[in-house]
Structure formats: C-alpha cells, structure tokens
Amino acid sequence: MNNFQRGALAALLIVIVGTAALAPAGIGLIVAARSERQQRVERLSILADAALYRAEDITRRLSGALGEIGKVNETPCSTPYLHALRQITLTHDQVRDAGAYDRDGRWQCSSLLGAVSAGTFDGLTLPPPDWRSSDGLSAWYGLARLPGGKESLVLGRDGFYITADPSLYVDGIDTDLAHEGRVAVINTEARRVIAGTPSTDASAVLAVYSQHKPPPDCSAVAVRQSASMPLAVIVSVPRETWRQRVRSLPWGWLFGGVAVGLACACWAAYFVVRRISPRGQLSDAVRRHQFIVAYQPIVDLATRRCVGAEALVRWKHHDRIVRPDHFIPLAEHGGLIQAITDQVLDTVLLELGEFLRHYDDYYISVNLSASDLTTHRFLDVLGPAIEQQGVRPQQIRIEATERAFLDADAAKDVISAFRRAGHAVYLDDFGTGYSSL
Questions:
Q1: SS3 for 308-332, per residue?
Q2: What SS3 class is residue 174?
Q3: Domain CATH for 401
C-alpha cells in the first residue's frame, strides 16, 4: 500500500468515524429541539385555553354584577340606591365602582363618591361607547376620568354602569405557564384590545388576530375565539435568546445522542480498521469464499504421463490474484489457515470430484499447514467429505512444508493417522518455505 492509498484510507476513516460520532449527536439535537418546540406549543395551547376561560369568567361576573344593579328598585342616586350599589361592589370583587349616568352620558352618582351634584366632577360626560351590543350593553375601554384614577373598563346599560380593572382579564390565569407568554384579550366586534400583559402592542395584537401569524419578536402564537361571547385571546411567546434555548433543551435527548454517537464512533473505528487491515481483509475473504484453486499438473517422468495435480490456493482480491506467500503466513498467525484449507478441499471435490470418480488412478495433492499436522482435525473433515463424493482415500494426498515438522512428535502421530487412512504424505518445497506454493 503506497502513501497515497494510506492517506486515502486515513481520510476515509476520519470521515466514517466523524460521521458515526456526529450523526447520532446531531439527530439527538434535532429531536431535542423538536421535542422542546412541541412542548412549547403544547404549553402555549394550555395557556391560551386558560386565558380564554379566564376572560369568559370575568365577563360573566361583570355582566352578573351589572344585572344586579338593574334589579335595584330604588330611585337612582338616592341614599338607598347608593347603599345597594355599595353592597354589590362589596359582593363582586371584580367591580371597582358602580353608579349612574343620564341620557346624555353625564355622570350622576358613584358608589365611591356618592351623588354628583356639584364640585370637581360635576358635568363629567361619558364619551360614545367603544362597543354596543344588540341588547343595549355598552362598553368603554381604557377610560381614566372616572373615580379611581386608573384606566378602567366600563360596562353600562340603561343609565347605570360598573367599572373594573382591565388587568383582571390577564392576571390570575389558573396555570403555571402564564409567565411564559404574552396574553391579550380583544373584543372581536369592536376590534379593540380589552386588556393585555405588560408591553402589549394593541396594533400588533390586532394584526395577529387577523393573520394568525406571530409578530417578528415572537416565535409562536395561539388564538382562541369564544363561542358564546365577542371575545378572543391571543397568546404569544417571545423569541428566546440562544442562552434561553440552550437552557430549555431536553438535555436527556442530547446526551443520549452524544452517547450513541460515541458508541457508534468506537464501533465504526473498530470496524473500519478491522476491514482495511490485512487481517481484516483476509477474514472477510474467508467469509466471502474468495479463494480459488489452481491445479499444477504432476507428471510421471518415467512415462511422461500426467498422474495428478497439486491444488494451489489463490486469493481473488479486487479482480487480482494474490499469491499464497503473501497471505498464508498471515492466515497461520491469525488463525484463519484451517478455514482456508477446508475451502480448498471443498473446491477440489466440487470441481474434480466427478473426474476422480471416473479416473481412479489420478490423485490430487493438498497442502497442509503446521496446525493441521499437529491435530486430527483435518483428517476428521477429509474422511466424510471424500466418502460423500465417492473418491478413494488414495486419490487425496497430503503435502506439507518443512515448518509443519517443527513439532515432530505431534506431526509424526498425525502423519501416521493419514497414512493409515490411505492418504500418502509428502514433504513439499523443502528449504524454500512458501515461495512456490
């Protein structure tokens, strides 16, 4: 392998290991981000439902208080009338003030200040209502000229009114998620904002209601429309900073992805190194049965007649033939030589089994390694194989290199067993090793 090939393999290894490490971590990050986004949408939906329930409940309570004032059977602004109004305001926590006005909208009396006949507030007139229902209910949004000084929501009917703090619509929403989003309540018929959390932009809220799209500074929006009242709530979530996003990520997914990525990287590194190493490629060749057999004729010099052939193993690797002296030592060292020998035997019997049955005076020589001459393993494989093919034992001869006889005592016993079984044993390439296998 030249330097270019080594560099290419190293680059390939880096790419594969990097991909194996980063892909699961990236998937974990994507899943974490999607999970966080889905959870945020679900929280936003819960908040929107809670906000709509709150808005409808406050409206019902205020309408109920206004209805009770309408049932007071006393002369408007009389002492008993004002006493009844004060009782109603005490009974309904949502009501800030209650009172009466004349046909021209001039303020007549208040549960807080009593009858207005002269003085500072004399002649105060209500402007035209911001909204009027079909049954005569009028609403003023954001009035600041009535008792209390703060901007008030005013509901009036038939010359009497109540005032309330608009923030009631957005404060006290029954959910732990209220701090996560901006809430605004609008009158859908008047297209007016009734109430909103701090920094609510009325024009932006109305645009969101019309388009159902989040404003530029928000990442998500939820709109809920009341089925029984001209009310809608708009809940939006401000865009998070990158620090907030990092803190809100489901880190379990992310750490899980990193852990899987590291495991995949280790596996990929092991797999790639194993595959591109000589032993890994040889092991893969054994698994894929990439070995072929070449036959070198054996000629009787006296008669000049071909009496058999020597089976020579070759490795067909990437459309080229690898000589045995390049891979046999590696196979012996890596414990693969016996599997290769078995494949050689299978190939010989498959290719020449029928020939040997018809010409019983021909034989094939098979080379054995040292490991197969120290045990009876190959003999136990050889016997049933030739019996199944109908080949006589004399037609399979054994050849071994001088290295096979390093353990002479063990080799002597195995050689004797081969000969008793009918297989001749020869010493091959004495003094030359594997050079002519």
A1: EEEEEEEEEECCEEECHHHHHHHHH
A2: coil
A3: 3.20.20.450
| CA pair distance 86, 111, nearest whole angstrom | 5
* CA–CA dist 352, 366 (Å, integer): 13
Question: How far apart are alpha carbons 55 and 229 in whole angstroms?
Answer: 10
Q: Is 11 exposed, middle or buried (0-12, 13-18, 19+ CB in 10 A)?
A: exposed
pTM equals 0.53
The phi, psi pair for 302, rounded to 5°, reads -70, -40
> What burial class does residue 135 get, using C-beta atoms within 10 Å of its C-beta: 0-12 exposed, 13-18 middle, 19+ buried?
exposed
DSSP letter for 428, please: -
In a domain, 260, yes or no: no
| Inside any domain, residue 144 | no
For residues 374 and 417, what is the distance between their CA atoms, to the nearest angstrom?
Answer: 11
Model confidence pLDDT, tens digit, residues 182-209:
889 999 999 999 998 887 888 888 888 8
Q: Number of folded domains in the chain?
A: 1
Q: Mind listing the pLDDT tens digit for each residue in 38-48?
A: 777 788 888 88
